[in-house]
Amino acid sequence: MARQRSLRLQGTHRPLRAVAFDLDSTLTRPYLDFTRLRKQLNLPEGDILRWLDGLPAHERTQAAQIIEAFEQDGVENVAWNEDAQETVAAVRALGLPTAIVTRNSRTSLLAICRQLDIVVDHLVAREDAPPKPHPACLHYTAAQLSVPIEHLLMVGDYRHDTDAGKAAGAMTVLLTNGKTPTWTVTADLVIERLSELLAHIE
Predict the structure, then answer these.
(1) Residue 71 shares a structural domain with residue 113
(2) Which end of the chain lies in a sparser environment, N or C, as judged by fewer CB atoms within 10 Å?
(3) What is the pTM assigned to this prediction?
(4) Which domain holds residue 186?
(5) How far is Cα 41 from Cα 57, in angstroms, rounded to an integer?
(6) Which long-range contacts (CB under 8 A, 24 or more apart) does 161-166 make?
(7) For range 74-101, the mean pLDDT
(8) Contact at 8 Å (CB) between 87 and 194?
(9) What pLDDT score was predicted for residue 13?
(10) 95 CB contacts (<8 Å, ≥6 apart)?
C-alpha cells in the first residue's frame, strides 16, 4: 500500500499517496521540435493527437509513423531537466509511488527511460489510456498505483497536464521552468523549478 504523506497547498494539507510526472519539459529538458513535426504533418495548429484520431485509417497510419519516427529521433538528445533526477529520487525515498504520464508512445517512453536510467513505479503512454488532457489517463494511473484519484498529484509543464489532473479530480502542480504561462493557470500549485515541490510535501 502506498504510504500517505500530505501536500501543503495554500495553507491547507491534503493527503498525498502518489506522484505522477509528465515527461518532456518536466523530467527531461525540451528535446522535441514540434514546429518541425507540424510542418511534416502539414498541421499549423491544434492538438496533434486529436487530429490524428480524426484521420481516415490509411492517413492515420502514415501520420502515426511520422510521429513515431519524430519521437525516436529525439531520444538520443534527451537529458534530465534541472533538479529532476534528484526530485524523483527524493519523492521515492519518501515512500511515495511514482509514475510517468506522457502523450508519447510507449516505444519512445521506454527508450528515454533506458537512456536516462529513469526508475518509477509505472509508465503510462498514449497507448495505455486516452492521453492528456483527457482525464482517463490519470484515472488509469491512480488505479495502477492503487491510490484514490484525489490522493494523486499530477506534475507537468503545460495546460494539458493540469487540465487532465483537474478534470480527473487529482491535485495539480504546474512547472514553469522560469517562463510565464501563456494561458490561464488553474493548477493548485505553481513552481519554477522541480525541486521546489519537495518543500510542499510533508
Answers:
(1) no
(2) N
(3) 0.85
(4) 5-29+78-200
(5) 15
(6) 161/22, 161/26, 161/101, 161/132, 161/133, 162/186, 162/187, 163/132, 163/133, 164/101, 164/132, 164/133, 164/134, 164/135, 164/137, 164/138, 165/135, 165/138
(7) 94
(8) yes
(9) 95
(10) 2, 3, 5
